[in-house]
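Quick one, T. Sequence first:
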Amino acid sequence: MNTQETPPPTATSTPTVVRFRPMQAPSLPFVIALLAVAAVVVVVVAAWSALITIAFALAAALLTLPIVNWLERRGVRRSIGALLVVGSVLLAFVMLVLLSANIVVNQGATFVASVPQALDTLRVQYESLSMPGWLRSSLDTAVNSIAQAIQSLDVGQLALGFVQGVLGVAGVIAGLSVVPFFMYYVLVDQPQTKSRFYRGMPAPWRVHVDKVVEIFMRDFADYFRAEFIVGSIVGIAIAVGMFIIGAFVGGPLAQFALLLGLVAAVLELLPSVGPVISYVPALLLAAITSPTAVVIVSIYYFVIFNIEGSFLVPSIEGKIIDFDRATVLVLVAVGFGLAGMAGGILAMPVAAIVRDLFAYAFRTAQTESAVVADS
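Structure tokens:
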């Protein structure tokens, strides 16, 4: 008699249920730390104009710290490695400033002096156009408003504003003289400073502090590094393109190619808005050249904008920013409203830091309050 063996019963997996404990009130150390952070933020905002050079030096030190650590691991004394790094950064910065100043002084002054003649040329071209009466009337109203605004400008006030701007730049440059010394001290003393900082910190806090420092490093320092890379690529592309187009269609485009590239590179710091503003001087130069130049320059800038927005920004900045375009415009507008140009530039990294800190705090609180139970 054949007997069939009964297969052993298979174990059925029970679903895992995640429950959460009721959230408890924050501990006293957490409240003290939160108040300390709020106090630091208030002080930094109140003294921002005085601390901007220190912030620049700290960002440069954080970006170059891995190089100093690498040199030290290769047997180079830390003080010598820090001196080499600071000297290299200072040399590169001076060369960049001299190159930019040369472009601004030579081409910028010529461009500003040529604006009145360019406007007269555009006026003559505009008057020679054939268009419907209603359209010409509307355009005449807008042009007259702009002309009256230009005529009402006080040349003396403009000259005074220019002098104040130059003195302001000189003051910033003078303030930057402290940057190399601050960088050197930070790079040399970083191991001792870190050791003293963690020595007085409770052990459970260290993992959270490390995460906060990582967020600041990733969202702040890496943001400006990515902006520098994207701005350099866009600036070179604009300069080369305007030189080639100017050589093809004639006019002053080739003469001001380096200036247009520099403007595009600097305005890349203003997300979404900056590239559009950089198109205005190129359009003015193209308009006084020929209609063909206007079309070619507009198409070229449109292509560069799309490459920048569709490829460069997502691949280089996307991992850091991760905001949609509408949110970017709102953040830049809020930054401009709160702190002018500096606010427009800092809006994106600050918003990214706040977002990532909140996300980390939320995930940490959720993980700590979770209880896994089998049903």
